[in-house]
């Protein structure tokens, strides 16, 4: 089951579009209803416009109506190190909760399990901004 999610992230890695870094990354996110969405990194000649694999996969899921997730697996070609998501991806995951699982894998498919909370402690999330009709700026009326 989780091995299967890691395998799907490895398959997605094959689609990586990374002519600049040549660093292939794949991700597979498991929605709460059991559907899996995959993604790869998508780089751009304007380097800063590039997308990470994790955000590609999560955006595919959200754009098809899924905002509740059980787990995400991430794969790279690193042999001796577990791939570790960048800060932007950690925050992107956290938008959809802190208590879900992140499988960080090595190229041989071995993995380390961490929660979003462990990857991004003391986080800022959707519950935090106090905006809306009963507030002015940051002050609750
Ligand atoms: O967790 C990660 C780390 C890096 N990358 C991508 C971004 C860029 O395309 C390349 C090199 O940083 O790898 C990901 O997609 N996910
Ligand atoms: Zn990232």
Automatic annotation (TrEMBL):
<feature type="active site" description="Proton donor">
    <location>
        <position position="54"/>
    </location>
</feature>
<dbReference type="Pfam" id="PF00383">
    <property type="entry name" value="dCMP_cyt_deam_1"/>
</dbReference>
<keyword id="KW-0479">Metal-binding</keyword>
<dbReference type="GO" id="GO:0042802">
    <property type="term" value="F:identical protein binding"/>
</dbReference>
<dbReference type="GO" id="GO:0005829">
    <property type="term" value="C:cytosol"/>
</dbReference>
<comment type="function">
    <text>This enzyme scavenges exogenous and endogenous cytidine and 2'-deoxycytidine for UMP synthesis.</text>
</comment>
<dbReference type="GO" id="GO:0008270">
    <property type="term" value="F:zinc ion binding"/>
</dbReference>
<feature type="binding site">
    <location>
        <position position="89"/>
    </location>
    <ligand>
        <name>Zn(2+)</name>
    </ligand>
</feature>
<dbReference type="GO" id="GO:0055086">
    <property type="term" value="P:nucleobase-containing small molecule metabolic process"/>
</dbReference>
<keyword id="KW-0378">Hydrolase</keyword>
<protein>
    <recommendedName>
        <fullName>Cytidine deaminase</fullName>
        <ecNumber>3.5.4.5</ecNumber>
    </recommendedName>
</protein>
<feature type="domain" description="CMP/dCMP-type deaminase">
    <location>
        <begin position="1"/>
        <end position="127"/>
    </location>
</feature>
<feature type="binding site">
    <location>
        <position position="86"/>
    </location>
    <ligand>
        <name>Zn(2+)</name>
    </ligand>
</feature>
<feature type="binding site">
    <location>
        <begin position="41"/>
        <end position="47"/>
    </location>
    <ligand>
        <name>substrate</name>
    </ligand>
</feature>
<dbReference type="InterPro" id="IPR006262">
    <property type="entry name" value="Cyt_deam_tetra"/>
</dbReference>
<dbReference type="InterPro" id="IPR016192">
    <property type="entry name" value="APOBEC/CMP_deaminase_Zn-bd"/>
</dbReference>
<dbReference type="GO" id="GO:0004126">
    <property type="term" value="F:cytidine deaminase activity"/>
</dbReference>
<dbReference type="InterPro" id="IPR002125">
    <property type="entry name" value="CMP_dCMP_dom"/>
</dbReference>
<dbReference type="GO" id="GO:0072527">
    <property type="term" value="P:pyrimidine-containing compound metabolic process"/>
</dbReference>
<comment type="similarity">
    <text>Belongs to the cytidine and deoxycytidylate deaminase family.</text>
</comment>
<dbReference type="InterPro" id="IPR016193">
    <property type="entry name" value="Cytidine_deaminase-like"/>
</dbReference>
<keyword id="KW-0862">Zinc</keyword>
<dbReference type="InterPro" id="IPR050202">
    <property type="entry name" value="Cyt/Deoxycyt_deaminase"/>
</dbReference>
<feature type="binding site">
    <location>
        <position position="52"/>
    </location>
    <ligand>
        <name>Zn(2+)</name>
    </ligand>
</feature>
